Structure formats: C-alpha cells, structure tokens
Amino acid sequence: MxxxxxxxxxxxxxxxxxxxxxxxxxxxxxxxxxxxPSFDQAAYVERYSxxxxxxxxxxxxxxxxxxxxxxRELRKMGRERATRVVKTLEALVKKRMYAIDWSVVRxxxxxxxRYGIKVDLSSVRSEQVLNTIKTLVKAHNLGIDPEKIYLFTxxxxxxxxGRKPETIxxxxxxxxxxxxxxxxxxxxxxxxxxxLVKVFEKVLIERGEV
Length: 210
Fold this sequence. Notes:
Blueprint (H helix, E strand, L loop, with lengths): L13 E3 L4 E3 L5 E7 L6 E8 L6 H12 L2 H5 L4 H17 L6 H14 L6 H18 L6 H10 L9 H17 L9 H16 L4
Helix pairs in contact: 1-3, 3-4, 5-6, 5-7, 6-7, 7-8
C-alpha cells in the first residue's frame, strides 16, 4: 500500500503512538506495519476492524463528552471513573467517530493531568493544524510554503495547550509571516486569536525567532 492510505476507503492512516498500529479514521480498520519477505518494501497488514457498535454506556459517555457535560463533572469524579471517561474521549477522537470539540478536549486534558492519566492526541491534532495551515495558505494566496509554517508551529508545540487547531494554525501562520518573512498578512482572526498573537510574539522574540 502506498502513501499511507487505507486500501478499503482511501483515507490517510493515522499512527496510534501507544499501540504503534495504523488506524483508518474513516472505516476504523487497524493495520500493522511489517517487512514482508515476499516484498521489497514494507507493507501494511490488516490486524482487525474497530468499526463496531459501541456499548450503551460508552455511547452515553461519548454523548456527554461531546456535549461538554462530562468535563464539568470530571472534577468531582474519582481517579478510576475519570480515567475511563478521559480514555474513552481519547479513543473516540482518534477514531474520528464524533466531531471534535477541542474546548471539551482541553478541559478533559486538564483533568487527565491532575490525575496523572496518560493521554496522547498529538497525532490527530497535528494533522488538523497542518490541514488548516494548508487551507489558509491556499484560500488567501499567501505564497508561503505551508510545510515551513507547520515546522515553525510544531517547534513551539508547548504553546498549543488545549487550543483549537484552527486557532493554532491562524496564529502561527500570521507570526511566521511577520517574524520570519517580515510580512503583515491579512487573514481572518478572532479577538481571542489577536490577543494570542501579541502574547506569543513576545515569547517567540525572546526565543530568538526573528
């Protein structure tokens, strides 16, 4: 299989950093990455399908998570219950079974940090940041290499916090153009994003990003 695409639906595969398996976010099929003796190159080998009906309790948790109900209650939960809820959120986000509300994810991540629950959503988030940067560059004819903006953005991942990928992409695209190219680009930006630009600009200048 070429270009990290699912052979069944053509969607790009996502690497699960915990299991080191490749998951198709569209059809839910999971693949292992192996060197097969009969091939000159590595191949993806199907492991199992994750596209199955969720049990009723997990469905309820999913609805609560993505309606923003659970994060308000997570702080009152014990570690065991909080772990189950947060890990459910992680699995659903990775499998793209629900639209992702990053404000909900941010609250859940704060609880995960408090209880020491290990959660990794970086691959999903990074992909969304990159795709949004590409969309921005194309939509506004910026004439900037989106990959360079992305590398600049990833370099300062510690500033991402739980912010939405769209916000991260807009803020860092603007700052890359200003600090690296000396250009003031015109792209739509919310008031909160403008405030972040001012804060991040000071930080990046202190880090020598000029």
